[in-house]
Each structure stands twice: as C-alpha cells, then as structure tokens.
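Hi team, as promised in this morning's meeting, here are the two structures we talked about. I've kept the exact order from the run log so nobody has to guess. The first one is mostly here for context; it's the second one we should focus on when we meet again. Sequence first, then the predicted structure tokens.
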Amino acid sequence: MGVVDMSNPPTKDFFASPALSLSLAGIFRDAGATAAAPTASASMEVEEGDEGSGGGGGSGSKKDDTVEISSENSGPARSRSEDDLLDHDDDEDDADKSKKKKRKKYHRHTADQIREMEALFKESPHPDEKQRQQLSKQLGLAPRQVKFWFQNRRTQIKAIQERHENSLLKQELDKLRDENKAMRETINKACCLNCGMATTAKDGSITAEEQQLRIENAKLKAEVEKLRTVIGKYPPGASTTGSCSSGNDQENRSSLDFYTGIFGLEKSRIMEIVNQAVEELQKMATAGEPLWVRSVETGREILNYDEYVKEFFVESSSNGRPKRSIEASRETGVVFLDLPRLVQSFMDANQWKEMFPCIISKAATVDVICHGEAPNKNGAVQLMFAELQMLTPLVPTREVYFVRYCKQLSAEQWAIVDVSIDKVEENIDASLVKCRKRPSGCIIQDKTNGHCKVIWVEHLECQKNTVHTLFRTIVRSGLAFGARHWMATLQHQCERLVFFMATNVPTKDSTGVATLAGRKSILKLAQRMTWSFCHSIGASSYHTWNKVSTKTGEDIRVSSRKNLNDPGEPHGVIVCAVSSVWLPVSPTLLFDFLRDESRRSEWDIMSNGGPVQSIANLAKGKDRGNAVTIQAMKSKENSMWVLQDSCTNAFESMVVFAHVDVTGIQSVITGCDSSNMAILPSGFSILPDGLESRPLVISSRHEKSNDTEGGSLLTVAFQILTNSSPTAKLTMESVESVNTIVSCTLRNIKTSLQCEDG
C-alpha cells in the first residue's frame, strides 16, 4: 500500500462518497509505514480502538469527523449501484462483516499543538522516545499520535522533494532527447557548427589555421552586430558608413526615445515592472513554509513551485509546468561592509564584476533609465548585461540582460532587485535569450559597526543546454549559480577588503613584510593575479577552447592568446591548458593539501622535489586558509620565488600561484607599485561535486566530519609563455609541453592522496 498524499485535505463530500475505499487501516497497523500529513492548518490523527475487537465503535460521531475505511485485505471497493445488484442474502452477510470492522475517527490538532510539534520538528525531524513522551504529556496527546504526526510530516516533505526531483529528472530527459535530435539533424545537414560551411570534399584543402580564422570572423561579426543594436546607433544589418546627419540623429536620441523606439516600452511601464519585482523579492526573502520547504537530508531550502504560482500568479504552460528549467534558491548571511559602499558595488558594473570574479566574466551597464537620488542611488534603474561563468571551460556561460533597480525600503533597509523584461531582451538579441532573471537580488539591512545582513534570492529561468557529465549535478541542482554561491563569494570579498584596509594588523598575520605599504602592495598584486586566473579559464566568449587528446587519457582543453600591450602579463603568445576531474576526496582536504608549501614538492614538477621555504605569509581572512604567501623553491641550479593566493569560502576554494621575478617581488615587498609587474597565473579551482551523500570519501578533519560530505571537482589550469614575439605562431611542441605539465600534476596529486582510480 502506498503513501496517501494528504497535502490537500479532502472535503466532507469527498469522504462521504460510497465509491471511496482507502486502505489506511493497514498503513497505521504497519509500524514501518507512514502516511503524508495534512497541512498544518488541517492536521489530523486517526484514533484506533482495539484491533481485535468487534462492533462498529464511534457510530455516533459527526459525519465530517468519521470516515469508514476498508481493511487492507478486503479487496476492491464497490460502488453503491453495484451493491444494489447483490442478493438479499449477500447484503446480510456484508452487514454482519461490517460490524466486525472498527470505525476510525480523524481528530484535528489544535493550533497550539501544531505549533509546538512544528517547533520540535525544525530542531529534530526524528525525535527519540523520550522527546515524544515529553511532548505528548505537554500537549495532552497520546505518544502514538505524536509519533504518527512526525511520520506524516516527514513523508509530506519527502513527497514535495520527490516531486521536485522528478521534475528535474524529466527536464534532464527532455534535454537529452533534444541533444540527440540536434545531433541527428547535424549529421543530416553535414555542416560545420562554428562557421556554417558545408563539409564537402574540397574542404580538405582548407588549412586548420584558415578554418580557425573563419570561426573567429563569424564570432566577431556576431559581436559587432550585437553591439550595434545595443547602443542603438545602427539597426541590425545596417552599414556603418552613411551620411553624417543620420549618424548624428542616432547619437542625439534621448534615453527615453531609445527605450520607446527600440524596446517598445515606455519608461512608466519599466518602472511599474521593477516596483512589482521589489514586492515579489520582499515576499520571497521573508516567506517561510509552504513557499520554501527545508530539505531534511541537505538542509537547503527548496522553492515549492506550486505555491509560488498561486502566490504570484505566474503564467505556466498548458501542461502546468514551466517552459524552461527553474532554479530558485535563498541564502542569508552577514557581510563586513558598510551599506553605502555595498550598494555602490552593485550599481557600478565594474565594481560588481570585481566583487564576483569567479562568477562574472563580463558585465556592462547598457543604459541608465533613471539616475536616482545622488549620492546613495535611491531609485536608480539601469539596463545591464552579464555573462556568468564557472571556473572551467566544460560548462557553458550564461548571458543575461536584466533591469537592476535600487530602492530604499526604510532608514536601515535597501533592496537591489534584478528582473528580465521580455521586449528588452528580444529587441537586443533574441538569439541570446537563453537565461532570464525572475525577480532576484538581495535585501540589505544595515547593522552596527559596518556590518550588513543580506538576504539573497536567486531565481533563474534557463533554456536547456548541454552540460558535461562531471558538472551536470552541481549545475542542474542550482548550486553552481545559486544564492549560496553568490553569498559565499560576497562574504569572502568583503572580508578580504577589510583585511586589506586594516592598519592594526597583528604581527602573526603579516610575517615577512615589514611595512603596511608593502603588505598592501603584495595583497593588491595577489588580487590582480587571482582576477586574471578567473578570467583565463572559463568558457567565456573571450576564449576559443580546443579539446586535445593525450596519451594518458585526460580531457584537456587548450586555448591561446596574444598579449600586445597589457603590462600586467608577459608580452607574446600565451597558451592555457585546463583539465577538470572528480576526486574521491573532500574539498577541505584537497584545499589544505594544495596550499601547504611543505607538500608542494609532491605535486609541483617545477620544484624538482626540492625543499620549499616560506618567505612571507599575509592573512586576508579569519579562516587560516585565506592567505597570500611568497615561497622560495631552491634547486641546485637556481632559486625560484612563487607568489601564491589561497582562497576558501563556504562554497568553493582556489589556490592560484605564479612564478615571479625575485628582484621585482622584493621591490613590491618594500611598498613599490605592483601594477606594471608582469605575472602569468596558474592554479586550481575546487568545488563540491553536488552529491551530499557519497560514501567512501577521504576527509581530513575527522572531528568535524560530516557524513553527507561528497567528493571534489578539481580544475587544474596552467599558463605558459611560448614565445615573446606576439607575431609568432603557436607550435604543437608548445601545446604538448603545457599538456604534459597538466597531466603530470594530476597524476602526482592522485598519487599523493591515494586516489589513483578517482
């Protein structure tokens, strides 16, 4: 017998129907079975008599409180019309049998009883016998009633989670079908996916370099066309050459004309949409159950989409499901930054991108609809564009256009809300509308001493796309681009800023650097190195990644670029090789291993197994893993210095490093400007694998061990300068060299952590 879903309590007429025959008696006799509880407002329990006694007890109870329930072994129920056809003798036999069945009564719990049981359930979904006994005495209920209530409550939440998981599985199945269909169409059409050229026999004469140029040319044309449309100077497809008067007319158009003429939306309509979005964000940030349900297994909050549709009157497709996959998450935290500076970092596109370098690869303010009240930006509305990434080329980026609205809700509370607007996206570039923002953002509450409480809500509507199997779980679960990721990054960056600005740094947190100016110069150089690393290894349209086959079987992606005039990097041809793998090791253990200078020789082939000495160690956060170090690797021939920036937060970790010129880094230690120091970073990105319950993983901190901690997704990236001349061509020898570094590093890590089969 399955679980009966009582999440929507039946009506009196429903229970009175003679055709209804529920086998609930068997469920409550079976100690191993549970039944889904009704909602808190209509919580009920079944009162049972002695199971072996005869008679129809409870016959005098009210109709709406008493339901006759057939036995589990009584066979299928018959309707009243069928019973009328039976012989008189059979009727008498049935009447005799019915007397032997025990009538059951549903008792509604009071609001106080429900409140007390809900409070205990949030603390302990599985109370022990002592807790149940104590609660039953307190509420005047039988211990069995308390036990059944908790069983029903757990089953109800589990049913909601299962519906959510089934929805995700169905979406994944649809995606696989679409991928299969697209592959079949591609094979039938037999054309190049990148440049659109037919793959006929004559293409054999085209060199690989010419083919690459065609691909780059097609991408550049698409970028130019997109920029023309966005800035409103030229309609799509128009020539850049024309009369001076027509060009001036386009440039002199006001912002309001821009929105009315191209987007087809009045400014008043945009303001109406963003004000509605603020109201929805406030409800999403403060509401509890039934809109948000906390998972018993993972502790994460899950959006009850059915409740969301009812609450906000969302238009759904004909089959009742959203047309695209929905990702919704919420996270609350405290950040160490004053409110005005925090608000400014959201409203300035460059500061916003710098605040989230591991998530945002591109960001721009397309236009300002309303400037707001200076200087606090209250009432500011602006159209923005962002390209969201993961630190791996295996996960496609997400390009999203949205309107951002900054509003002061009270003296101590502000809202930053993002919402996508259909006509805006369609008129900019309909081909890029693969990700939309439903009302998302954060509610910021000012606290004392430069602290702010932030409630972050992330609500995305994404088009189906192909995701590599390694990252499919973490992306499809909504963790990769969810509120937890944004909040953890925000807290980490704000803490880093506090440590950077500090003037009373303890000696133990700043060893090897004598002056405050030297400390700031080193921290600034390390931050620029980490930003460059994040910018170099994602799937952004800045890069063209090619898969390279290796003898050892690793999946390595390679891209190259030419640096002509950036003083922050070496000039010439730069090659970057990236590989992502899953390891049966907890993220904490993997991070501690990679950042430890005493174990660097175990994986770094450049150290040649020699000792590594710590020259400087600068703390940049409360966690001991957040630090910038300068290390010296000594060998027989020479001594190399390495600048290393290790970062960790509640979601991800990074270890970024670069070999530096000894003379140059020594001048930076004394406080000299580091902006012109050329640096080429390599490093590691570490993410949880998204599986909360994976057995047999290695964990370092046993005293804090969590049974639900899974393995790690490790991304290894190395960059090398292959030629100091920007006009030089990339050679296969250079590609093989950087591939060898990646392969050997991965092999050394697996050997040291004893997970060669991971």
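And here is the second protein, the one for discussion:
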Amino acid sequence: MGPRIGEGPQMPDKDTKTTMGTEDMHESKVSMEPLDSHHDEQPQGLFHNIKFFVLCHSLLQMAQLMISGYLKSSISTVEKRFGLSSQTSGLLAAFNEVGNVSLILFVSYFGSRVHRPRMIGYGAVLVALAGLLMALPHFISEPYRYDHNSPENRSQDFEASLCLPGTVAPASALSNDSCSSRTEAKHLSLVGIMFLAQTLLGIGGVPIQPFGISYIDDFAHHSNSPLYLGIVFAATTMGPGMAYGLGSVMLRLYVDIDRMPEGGINLTSKDPRWVGAWWLGFLISAGLVALAATPYFFFPREMPKERHELHIRRKVLAGAASISSKDEELSSQHEPLKKEAGLAQIAPDLTVVQFMKVFPRVLLRTLRHPIFLLVVLSQVCTSSMVAGMATFLAKFLERQFSITASFANLLLGGLTIPLAIVGIVVGGVLVKRLHLTPMQCTILCLLGSLLCLLLSLPLFFIGCSTHHIAGITQDLGAQPGPSLFPGCAEPCSCQSDDFNPVCDTSAHVEYTTPCHAGCTGHVVQEALGKRQVFYTNCSCVAGDGTVPAGSCDSACSHLVLPFILLTSLGATVASVTHTPSFMLILRGVKKEDKALAVGMQFMLLRVLAWMPSPVIHGSAIDTTCVYWALSCGRRTVCRYYDHDLLRNRFIGLQFFFKSGSLVCFALVLAILRQQNKEASVKATVKSSELQQQL
C-alpha cells in the first residue's frame, strides 16, 4: 500500500548512524562534537526538542501512509467511475513506486548536504498536492451517470430501461457526440492526471522517511534512539489501517454528494452501479499531510544532542523497543527500519560521478552472497503476495461474497492489517528474547511460510459459483450479446449496452436490465428514508412478474467472515517472518556490506514486487471477466466475473508466491547446514593437526 506494513521507513542518508565501526565513529565526531561543545549556546525551545520531532514525524508518516494506501481501499470504485480494467487500476496503484525508486539512491547520497527537516516538509507538501491532484478528476469531469440519460432527466431513469414493445432500439445507447475524439481525449486526460498524481506521491515520499529516521538517530540520546524509532514505526504501521477505515466511511457516501441532482438518486450502496465518494478521502488525507508538514519548516538544520536518557528502566526500554535492538547482532528492526542505501557511508566524500562508479562494483559483491539472494527472493515472493492482496482483496470480497465496498474495507482495516502488525511485533520479540541464531531464524521463517501456505488451502473452497445471469452465464464461452437474451424479451428491442440489473429472487436469476426481464412498469416504495424500486409486469418472471432493482445476493455471503479470518491468520504468520528474514541478511553478508545489502534489498522489493505485482494480479482478475461494459467500442469496466475462476486464479497467485517463499527459505536452510558441516569438518581437521603437532 505505497509504503507497506512491515516494510518500515525508507533508506536513510549517510548521516544515519549504524554499527559500522570506524566510519560510524567518524560521523559521530563530525556531527556531535560541535553540538556538545556549544550546547549551552544553542537556543532551546519546542523546535529544538527531539521528542517533539519524534511526535511530528510519527504523525506525518502515519498521514503519508494513509494517503498512499487510500487508493487501494477505493480501487473498485475508481474502476467503475472511470471505466478502468483491473490491469489498468493495478498499474495506477503501483505507479507511486516509479518516482520513489528513481530518486531514493540520490536521497541517500545528498542526505547530509541539505536541510533535512525542510526537505521533509517540501516532500510532505508535494505529497499533499499529489493527494489534491488525485481528487481533481472528480471536479473537472461530468457528474456520474449510472444510466444513459442526462443527470437532469432523472424522471426518465426507469422508463429508459423498461420494455417498450414495438419500438426500435438505437444502434448504440451513446450518441456520436458522446463518442467523439474530444470525449475520448478528456477521458484519457482524467486517467493521466491520476497517474501523474501517483508519480508525484512517490516522489514526495522519498525524503520523508530516510531523513526523519537519520535526524532522530543523530540528535537523540543513543539509549533513547531505539525507543523513538520504535514509536515512529508503530505509528507508521497504523497508516494503512486508517486508509481502509477512511475508505469504509467515504464509500458510504454517493460520489456526487457535492452536486446531487434534484429529487435525489435511486441507488443504494448495494447496487452494483453505486459509486462512493472516493475523492473525498484524498482531500481529507491531503489536509492531514499538509498540517503534519507545517512544523518541519521551523526545525533547525541541527539541534542540540539529547544529553539524558529517559527515566525508564533499561528493561522496560528494551521491552518497549523490542523490535529496535541496540545490539548490532540482535538488531531486529533498528537497521531494517532505516533502510540504509549505504553508498554514501561506504564512500562518504565521493563526488556524484564517483558515487555512480563505485555503485556497480559494490553491488556485484553484495549479490554474490547466496543467502542474501535467496532471502531477498523469498521477500520478493512475500511482498508480491502482500501487494496483490492489499490492492485487490477488497474488490475480491465485494465480488465473491456480494458485500459493499465499505464493508470490505472495514474488514481489512479492522482485522487483517492489525493482525499483520501483531505478527511483525511477535517476530521481533522472538528474535530478541530468544537470541535466535541464523539457523534458528531460518527455521522460524520456514515454519511461518509453511503455516501460511497451509492456511491458504481452504480458501480455494470458500466461495460459490456465479449465480445465473440471463444471457451471460448460460454459456461462459460465448460473448454476451442481444442474441443470447431469453426469447421472452425479444419484442422489447432492449439496448445491449445498458446496465440496470434486476433480480428474480424466486428463481435466483439476474437480468442486466428490466427490459431484458420483459418489465413494462415500475413502482417506488419508501421506507425508513430509503427508496426501493420494483419493476412490474415482467414477462420473463414467473408469478406476479415483479422484481426488485439490484443484483442478486450471493448464496455464500455468510462465508465472508471465515474467509477473512483465515486470510488474516495467514497474514499474521507470514508477518512473523519479517524480522527473522532481516536478521539473515544482516548476518549473511560481510560487515562492510550490511548497509548496502539492506538498501539493495528494499530496492529489489520495490522493482520486483511492489511495482509488477498489482499489474499481475489485475491482469489475472481481468481474465475471469465474462461481461465487459463497452464505451465507444472499447472495453471499460467488468460487470460480471466467473466467481469460481476468479477465486481459483486470485488465491492461486497468492499460493504461488507463498510457495516460492517457502522454497527459498528451504534452500537457505540447506546452505546454512552445509556451511555448518564444513565449519565443523575444518574445526575437526584443525584440532587433529594441533594434536599431531603436540
């Protein structure tokens, strides 16, 4: 979701202090001694207090992750509003990684050469502007039309979809004017604005996390730094959950709540044509980011080094910051949180040209470590699974179990994400408290991956087939068209591209419009302030010929809770492997390469997982569509999916990535055992040689 649960903040600049030996001591002397020697001369105040900076940075990172993750909570709504396929929406969701990846290495290099708090502020302002830009298409586009009538002619909503025998249907419900090149160009411009906004969102987020982490580590007391970073990390992980919670609230509101037509609308949130106020969440998130960015323009470039440890017992401190150990060899989150690029630390005084020259050589040396490569590949598989689930799980739940987008977001934000956070914390505690060795870390990762894989097996069977949709699901291999609709509606001359579904509840058959059900009349009933539309005199419906508006409910909607519980448990055990896998990287490479290894790890995760995975999942979802909406002869949004195929391919992709992670950890375990065996043989040979010499 943009920055992700369990990924932590991004790579810091070269000022970030880690256990890097003499280089670290050198940086400490450069940045700390002047501050300590002139401590009494430094101005004191709120903006010279590192604790206030920690508070501000926690709020900013939480707001940033909320705005980055909000698009994923409303992905199906954006698809319906702008006629996007899942492949296109997946590409849109992944596009904020483009700007991030292209600039992150340079941020690590220029870190100490800029005013870090101000750069954080500028980045946050850009993030806020990107949020406003994401909402802009709502204001420059026409009001949402859930039928082919103009918004001003709502009285014709019902009549347009009714069966009118003796009339001739137009060749297309859309006029030539509405399919003009100008209209198509405007549609492309609206989508282009959102892609631009996502790119700016990624660029704006580049300086926020690395500069903030390094600033805290530079000026906090060394005993307090792990606790502060733990607080920032905990606040950061709340962002995606808040994004889904915000989406749950916003999508209950109608998209054009700011320009409602006279007489209101005849839709409920359960209607498949319903589009929620997706844009409102971006405005709220952008406002929060802008507010959180304001204090950064008042923080100094350097502040007095914090001189005193917090009045907390070391035992309590270690427990509170268990995911941020101070010890290098037991550090479960301290170094990973910082996402070090390491290049500037390896050559702190290089020019830009020298910096670019040294990078390939050090990178090649790092990539030669087999354990590093295998652990990164396992994390690529896990991140691909998480990226696909974060982007499309809400949409999957909507389609598979006939629930609203609001309720789907509520389940993810209130259950799945919090449990994943718990898993990350548990993994960090296990590594720290049990002092796990690399072999033990590998076994923990292997068990976590295996259990996650086993929990996903029942998901293939939790769901049901697509209900009968007249003219569509009776022959999934054929393209739907007028000739496939039942003969009872032939005299009606129905428009094939109209969409106003009704449900014959007695036969559990759905019709794409009242016309296709042969309905000639309608009635509107109001109860408890809500309108319920019924269509009457339907020649294709048995009994009294009356059907309610809206799609048929799923026969297995009651299975949504077991499904989400299993999914959440799987996410929890997968998250337990987060910290141990970092330990394998930190202990699997040479000491001088650790910083670069962590930095390259996150670079590879973005390029190989977070960028392509949403597109891969979206493309797989598109292949399960059985009825596409058409606009000017092109496919837009999918109206109906083959639910069995959708479930098998979506869960199958997840299963594939989980299996890949399991295989990688198994290979790591085999390599470690081989290394231990070789070390034991060498020790035995050396011991025998010593005995012979004696």
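Starting points for discussion:
Residues 643-693 form the longest helix (51 residues).
The beta strands are 468-469, 502-504, 509-511, 521-527, 530-536, 547-548, 625-631, 634-641.
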